[in-house]
Design a protein that fits this description.
4 helices, Porin, mainly beta, 16-stranded antiparallel β-barrel, two-stranded antiparallel ribbon
Length: about 400
Amino acid sequence: MKKLMNKKIMAVLAAVALTVGVSSAAFAMELFGTQVAGECAFTLQRMPDVMKASTMEYNRSTLQMTPDDIKNYIDLIKATFAFSLKLTKEFENNGKLVVRFKGGEGNGLNDNLETYSKINESADPGAFIKNTELFYQQSFLDNKFIVNFGKFGVGAYFADNNYTSQFLTGAFSTDKTISISPSLLALRLNYAAITDISIDYAYFTYFLTKASPGPGKGLSILQVTYKPHEGGNYRVYVWTNNTYHRSYQSREMNRKYYGTCGIGISADYAINERVGVFAKIGHKNPYVGTINDREHAESPSFNLPPPSTLWNVGIQVKDLTNNALGFAIGQISGDCVLKSNNIDNFKYGKETQIELYYKYKINNNISIIANLQYLANLKGGNTSYNHDTVVIGIRTLIAF
């Protein structure tokens, strides 16, 4: 308990120190020609009338609850803290070095709800601080050809959307059907073929990671972006991942492991300077499930697979002072192959996510965001807590 309290105190002190020292730090780094950007987020979420953890035990083979008293309800409140710090050093030869650190404390309601999409995507329960980006970018041919080499994430350049960064529901900001595992090294090539069209390709190697101790395994993704005017972005992407994945092609699952692949469409459009809309569709090979590191390739344990189909749409509206109202709705479907094989009573249901938020800007650096989230048919009905869920949240966002 004392250790946990110390961690929380450290998180608060770090946030205060980071916020108070923004001006002086930015000034000091500017002396060396380095751009500094970052943000801190304090999130409080409340889920009323949820069953206590002690009543949420269930039998994995039947996916049915086995509580002694299912009337044991409480109001569940969770708080998280997360931060991001990005340093960019530009060079005269059209190159730049980018370093980003992320961290935080607490996983919030993600620990209490089994969902296809995180209920709090901003939560970072790992190390208090970790390096998430470290890459060099070089531009050629008047920025028509760009090369990135180093460590960076898939979502930084692929399957992204404008107008989704303030949503807490993970499926609205990232395509949950893409099979992703932490990568230590990646290569990205971007070419602006013509004025309105650009082509992106990246390879994320899993060499020296748990997903693939040996060479030759990784994620490849290709995206074509059509931008006919300033307010529109239309992206089509395909990906393949040849890392070890569990197969669900038969009732016994054969203990065979394969690669997988998928396709997606992501678009956003600014109707005017105040109103923007977005949409996303993703689909993966339904015959292949989760990534498994090779050392556990023969494990007979069964885990519910990741989603195979995703869609969502949303809108953001700003007022004259840049306060913003956002709304999104979407669904994620499970694996139809498990349904057809009747493996462990798997239910091929659709999880529904709805979120409404309002962002109030106190000034250029501080905002208060209120969120209302609704989830139905969690993980397609394959959880012990199979109830429609309402979550109320509030965040303080400090950006610089």
